[in-house]
Input
Amino acid sequence: MRHPTALTTARPLLAPLVFFIAVLLSAQALAFDVGGLSYSVINATDVEVTGRTTANTDKDIVIPVTVVDGSTTYSVTTIRPQAFEGDYLDSVILGNSVTTIGTRAFQFNNFDSVIIPDSVTTIGVQAFGFNYGLASVTIGSGVTTIEFLAFNRTALDSVTIPASVTAIGYRAFFNSTLTSVKFLGDFGAFDLDMFEGNTALATITYAQSTAGWPQTFAPDTGSTGSVIATPAAAAPAPPAAPTATAGDSQASVTWTRPADNGSTITGYTVTSSPGSNTCTTSGADTLTCAVAGLTNGTPYTFTVAATNGVGTSAPSPASSSVTPAALPPAPLATAVPVSPLWLLGVMVGLLSVLGIRQLCKI
Output
């Protein structure tokens, strides 16, 4: 009969220990440090930043686009909630791979400006709250959601909301120092409590097509006045139908100046049909140009589009049809027949003059 050995007796105790060690090693493999920052693996291709390493006291940090651990290159896609909260950083540069900035990720820092790259889609709850000196923020064109209190208690004077944004949380810009806000997209009718506590907020600029505008809003008790909702500048209105005058292989086109919709017109483009031949002008008040390269004998119509700092208008209605034609040839000189009697008279006259001169000499 075999007696149990110490090893066989210890096996039930070793199994949990082996499992614990395996879990510990696995956890270590999912987290690593590179360049003074700590990362945690999300999946086979992506990691999140979890904060600075213990030894890193830098006040200016750069979140890279990618990091390498061993033989694997990861994209840095997420700033973990509270990753840099209370670190009193002076600046941060976010790589254009970050898609999510987590809750309170950069709360209680000393930023004076932040650029949020176009890759970011979500700015989390209180992500940049209590950055009391934050005076400038550029929100990337990929952001769709700005969460509750995301920019709470900052020094922002103005902010531009890109057209990509579809949701802004309650008090997202609470108790900041905003005086103006501009919406680039058709955000629709919404509750302006996102700006509560901005007692100096005076102007909200919005896209002209936005439903539900204009609306007024008293930002807070004791506000100096209601917001004045002002249409944003837009591309010019289309010009009225132009007038065309045909020439030889060309046409002269004139038009009237359309409404500039809040941005000065910088030029016009005239286009023929058929052929799409064009001519362009510079400035708001140059209202004529000649379209060359036309085929004589072919009828043409013309449209005009105006351009300003925002964009280009829709084409105008078409002009009346005109047909270029070659100029008629200059008339040839015609020989005038000379009468013999007329010629005889001229000769007699000359002889008479000569005879008189001779008599005068005697």
